[in-house]
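hi support,

uploading two proteins for the ticket. first:
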Amino acid sequence: MSNGPSDRPGRVELADEAVHWDLGSSLSYGEYLHLDKLLAAQHPLTREHNEMLFVIVHQVSELWMRLMLHELTAALGSIRRDDLDPALKMLARIARSQSQLISVWDVLSTLTPFEYTAFRNALGRSSGFQSLQYRMLEFLFGNKNAEMLAVHRRDPAAYAALEQALAEPSLYDEVLRLLSRRGYDIPEPYLSRDFREPYLPSKQVAGAWLGVYHNADKDWDLYELAEKLVDLDHNFQLWRCHHLKTVERIIGYKPGTGGTGGVSYLSKALELKFFPELWQIRTSM
């Protein structure tokens, strides 16, 4: 005599489920996601078992950056229109995506120096330093550096896209323009500057942000926007720190495949902040 589902442990009964066994003309899960292409894009150059980990970790990272760029582009449009509610949601989603990027280093850190050395030479000069999407994110957040364009000269489309992003206002530039439209005192040179140049902190901009925090009841959306920017900056710093420690763990102080000093190069970026005044004013509040 059957006593119910417990007689068949580990098996889920489907008799009462309306499963679409025949998809008819509908797309399948694999077709919708183009999994045939996605899962066929892993091509290790050696027969070393651990190279597959290296390939997938970096491809997954690029997918998360793809989403971040998608959200950031839309958020920029909303900020230009002074429509902050959707922008705040998009920036929050970017912060969650950054958490996934950070966690990827935990997986890569399972690679030992001996395992990496077995296939490292096959990489040649290829390096994350050449990531178009990463550089685009840095430019859009506000870390402008025209020197970084040179490594993309062999790809005219990538070079042109980065050149355009370099010349256009960054996220922070657009936010400062928004503050100005809302009546906060942003110096005119910061509203119409040469956006190809690196951003330089301003005491007046810091004062404007202090005003936002002091007027949070009146300008709550700007206050929320400020905190969302701090989240993004904070997560980017965590990502860089995890990157550095993972590289140090796997290759020590050897140069990177892209020609940089490896750990010594990565350490230079640890103090970089996209939105410097938002950190400066915390001492004054």
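and the second one:
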Amino acid sequence: MNAAADHFEAPDRNLALELVRATEAAAIRAVPWIGKGDKNAADGAAVDAMRKFLGTVDFEGVVVIGEGEKDNAPMLYNGEVVGTGRGPRCDIAVDPIDGTSLTAAGRSHAISMLAVSDRGTMLDASSVFYMDKLVTGAAGEGAVSLELSVGENVRELARALGKPVGEVVVAVLDRPRHQGIIDEIRSAGAGTRLILDGDVAGGINAALDGTRIDMCLGIGGCPEGVATAAAIKAIGGFIQGRLAPLDAEERARGEAAGLRMDHIYEADELVRGDNSIFVVTGVTDGSLVRGVERVGGVVHTESLILRAKSGTIRRIQATHLASKWLED
């Protein structure tokens, strides 16, 4: 096979720079709905913008994990094909707004994100809604596991990091289902960082050097789990996931789709290979990226591009002419 053919088989750096336009568009279109109390309107605006921009990108992307089924359009549904059809064939995990409730309430840490990898490499966990996740930086490799108790994980990570347990901070989604985890973290002597919504940013912050979060624990959405894995592979962190079906019916549906319910999925099982790209743009201000800001006639955005193949983290600050976005 010649070099030109190889170039069009897999996601590359040029594709990464094109994909950020889609998350920028979704984030900007959501801005009029920030703090307006209507999360569906915010999400719909972001979905429409992301779909439109993805349609201009030279690739053939299949949404392996999206927000909803075809009947729930305008969501980017599982199995939807996006792109021009020319260029690399990719799997996609997408969330035009991770943190719709945050956006609607005007709170921080809402993001627009998507992840891509070679076709057939991303775990299709769409038949199960939730996943139990554990994310740390590289120090967690060989030290922590979903097979251990919360307290054991806290103590083992502290040992691996060479710091007192009392200085360990664990991010957890603030949900009633996590009260037991929260109690165990605090009983072990560590601190919590309770996340109102959007555990993708929490997982990435746990894996990045220089943040205040050391670990991210708990049950969140499967799309977020797979997307986080794509990001972690670029950062060099550690992630495990275990599917958490809501009931026997969902468990049976997952098993029929070939998923392993009690299996602990490692990063290379969630996203196989090293040719994945994760892109995120801030909707509202957060610790990972700043939110969209309009100043006079321009709109400012901040994005991250994480590319596993090169192990690079690129932070992109862009300025957009506001009049282009006010016109439809």
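thanks. also noticed: The radius of gyration is 19 Å.
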